[in-house]
């Protein structure tokens, strides 16, 4: 007589999940799913089971172990699934969506677009979302400003730029021909200009550190993500598609990077204004 486990296994359908949205795309039976698995190409040396015997797995069947292995391999993507359950804000010029809250609690303060002039055309390079620790921001603005101004001020933006408040800027690539060497050059130029405005000098050796050991062979396709975080102790950490490529401890580099988004000539003025509005709501 079949056990309850056998009956459940026989009737269970495998659901294919779209990793970015968490929605079910289609269902397939265990037999169909097995035919799609790469492991199905490996011969076990056993004769095929009769069709009526393929409806369920015997206790200790290797398929049970295979199913467990597949589940374990997908666990590292769980943070994406968690973010997919969170409401999102869409960057309107690109359609790229950003979760309004990250797994570590940081809140989305603004979204924007980085454009670059090429051959006289404004090319969309990447959409970005700026996240920050709201508790730290709230303590900062109340301590430094006290009373909320009528509108965001230059003092408020520079207060955030110069602070050690935890922030993350998530970049989502939209330009299909972008390469790592282009990204490296873009940051070298942008950070170099920011450092010059902040100090009046140049620090070329410092600007080159932000991409660290990121190989120029890395393929950046639309949807690829780069995250640059300001960590406690003025550490600027860069991740390319989830892999840490640099950790640089430098107050100047941290200030210069935030200046690119909140300074006098930001990448996206609308995003800077939105960040300023978020600051006002903290009072």
Chart the SSEs and their pairings.
Layout: H1 4-11, E1 14-17, E2 24-28, H2 30-36, H3 62-73, H4 78-84, E3 88-91, E4 96-99, E5 107-118, E6 121-132, H5 134-144, H6 154-162, E7 167-173, H7 180-199, H8 204-207, E8 225-231, E9 235-240, E10 243-249, H9 251-262, H10 269-280
Antiparallel strand pairs: 1-2, 3-4, 5-6, 6-7, 7-8, 8-9, 9-10
Protein name: Chalcone isomerase-like protein 1
InterPro entries: Chalcone_isomerase, Chalcone_isomerase_3-sand, Chalcone_isomerase_bundle_sf, Chalcone_isomerase_sf, FAP1
Family: Belongs to the chalcone isomerase family.
How would you sum up this structure, described in words?
The structure is a single chain. The protein is an alpha+beta fold and 283 residues long. It is 36% helix and 24% strand. It has ten helices and ten strands. Mean pLDDT is 78; it is low at 1-17 and 21-79.
